[in-house]
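For reproducibility, we list the full input for the uracil complex.
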Amino acid sequence: MIRVDKLVCSQIADLSRKDVKQLCKKGLITVGGKKVGAEDKIDENEQIVVDGRILCVRKNVCIMMNKPKDVVCSTKDGISRTVIELLDEDLQFKNLFPAGRLDKDSTGFVLLTNDGQLSHKMLSPKKHVPKTYIVGLENDAKSEYINAFESGMEIDGGDVCKPAKLFIDENNKKICKVVLYEGMYHQIKRMFARLGNKVVSLHRTHIGGLELDRNLQLGQARMLENFEIERIFSFDLRNT
Ligand code: URA
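The corresponding predicted structure, in tokenized form, follows.
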């Protein structure tokens, strides 16, 4: 839900909030056929008419969130807070869902959208949208891990991973960067467990070629522009 004045001003650049208030007072703004006040909260997917002009509001939205720990990537959960519940009121668009998941104890980049097609494109195994993570380990990473990741290792339960990239921080070998081209359940934790190490922190920094906005604090979110959505699909390993 979003306030009438906020929505109308964001769509019609030459209207101020004061103008919107005046138009509402005159009954010239309707939502779903009903007159509204400037401060009313409305569903942006309804038809909005401003002084005879139909507003075309973006139905599909895509939101970037910096997920904190202890929040789950689902729309509903009886116990934990969900990424949807964490959104500020002005980002509470209808039918949002997380396109891809991070574990409850992982942090970082999560995309929320109400665009089924976009989500399908992002998660489709054929598209191989890579994800980049910064991983904290209990013990130093060994250089052999790089080949193990590259060669497509088998993990517990018999799952065989696609080749993945591992970069070890030369100054602190407990820190690694991992690029995955798929997303199996607890995959990174299981890959390091297979090598006898343990993940102590996991933060996603990139989805495809798009980096998590460094200005977003944990728990914060913002809408993506179209050029940013396009960037998801143009990945270059050298830029991550
Ligand atoms: N791999 C994991 O183990 N956990 C995540 O949250 C993401 C990738």
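Residues 102-103, 106, 186-189, 202 surround uracil (CB under 6 Å). DSSP finds seven helices and 17 strands in the chain. Both points were considered when choosing residues for closer inspection.
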